[in-house]
Amino acid sequence: MPWVGLEDIPSNFSGKKFLSSTCAGNEFKNFYDNGLLNKRFDKLTKYKHKVSYIGGLSWERIDFELVEKIAMNFPQIAFLFGVKSDGLDKTDEAKEKLLKEHSNVKIWEDLSYKELATMVSKCDIGIIPYRVSGQNLRICPNKFFEYSALGKNTVTTSIPSMSRYSPPSRIATNHKSFIHLLNEGLNETSDLRSKAKLRELSDKASAKETLSRISILLNMK
After folding, report:
1. Is residue 67 situated within a structural domain?
2. Do residues 179 and 73 make contact, with C-beta atoms less than 8 angstroms apart?
3. Which terminus of the chain has a smaller tally of CB atoms within 10 A, N or C?
4. pLDDT single digits (tens) 88-143
5. How far is residue 139 from each of residues 59, 100, 147, measured CA to CA in Å?
């Protein structure tokens, strides 16, 4: 379900307002260590940390300049992208430039949804390096709930919907801030309590919980 700012709903709409969100699938919520991707991760042992991004790969959506900066600033960290490309020339050019200039960036476009969950589970933190413009101004990234379902913290650019989920997400106001927050998040010890709170947040955004809230709202007098 898309995220829509309540202030954008016409004032003459007589219905009840409801701020919706997306949710994590069962592969993330009921994850178990299935051994998938072990061979790929065996090749990444030289990296101190691993950072994940899952979802679409699009020049219009991804801030490739930001991705280049974080890859350059953290050569000891593997940045793993489990994605599906939009196939546009600008996207392909940006992708090839990343892979050519930054050996610590890995782009995997052949993963199943279950394998995406495995990839995130093996990483230390999740990122949402989105442009703060265009279509990104009216979305709530599903990947945030998928990261949270696996107890992974998120560093994101300041797309409007994420303000509702900060904390626990770390929201960067510019590229320098993103680099600082990513470094901060990677050096923070994540305890069982904080991981449990992230999973609880993901549970509240599930389809079942969302439908329950809608039902309660519709039955209010």
Report:
1. yes
2. yes
3. C
4. 999 999 999 999 999 999 999 999 999 999 999 999 999 999 999 988 888 889 99
5. 16, 31, 16
